[in-house]
Histidinol-phosphate aminotransferase
Amino acid sequence: MSKYWSPAIRQLTPYVPGEQPKVDNLIKLNTNENPYPPSPRVVEAINNYPKDRLRLYCDPDATALKQSLANHFQLHYNNVFVGNGSDEVLALAFMAFFRQEKPLLLPETTYSFYDVYCKLYDIEYRQIPLTDDFEINFTDYDQPNGGIIFANPNAPTGRQTALHEIETLLLKNRESLVIVDEAYIDFGGSSAVELIHNYDNVLVIQTFSKSRSLAGLRIGFALGHEDLIAGLERVKNSFNSYPLDSLAIVGAVAALEDVDYFNETNQKIIDCRDWTTAQLEQLGFRVIPSKTNFVFTCHQSISGAELMQYLRSNNLLVRHFSKPGIENFLRITIGTAAEMQTLIETLKQHPQI
Ligand code: PMP
């Protein structure tokens, strides 16, 4: 620590993503990446990009991508914002909208990046516990607030909140902005994007990192009323006017165009998730119903930390959280069918299973 650190930085515990190992003999089921490669069209688009043009600055507005996203979601160009991964889009949104006089409300168990950003930007916030079944109960959010954020489906629980409940929340909170983080929406969830047409207090954030297999290109986006998007643009342009590089822009456009590949790979993941859930349940695990590309699960008699270590020593990397209340749970990303078979076979060999 340096004496020059600001008070906000001093109390900050940075968000630590799951381990990114430097060796490749591990089955990596810890950071919710897609087990399949990106669409061949993405590779082709990047290969065909005239490399001499990398000399030039990229399009600061990422016009081609914003237009593709607008067409894809049947929205206007001015309803779309793009950034360097949804983490950056979230960060800019926290800066733009959440430093209010009343506290931001968020679930107690959710994406841990949110409270990191509250601390960094000195945003007052209140964490609302989930139900015993890990559901978000919006009646607990009936209190004065300067905004609401949650992930739908939620992470790390995987549970989805119904669209009509989100709509009621928007109606009850006409004076507040509600951000719905839909990082995992494409694995069977119901998106709040359609609510954008009727509500100016909802911002939906999505990513190319999960369902489009492009975590390494860093592409996220927000959809919402044009005044919200203008607010994000204002912060972005004061911060980094070139959030997406030229290759990310062409790669993302190509990914969006390959609808068949998207549907096919996501369906494989959904089928494999349902198979994995059934297998884990047969082995005595409790599995929270998931609409994502991961499962949140615990065993009745073995601690989460022990199971994580056991799997690690068998070259399987999964995510464990030491947070009280969920310390016995593991979050396991859905890999290929073969990887999940290895996971189940390895678990069967544990002496207490
Ligand atoms: N939101 C949630 C709920 C996530 O789990 C993640 C991935 N860690 C993100 C946002 C950020 O994803 P990315 O920055 O790769 O778009």
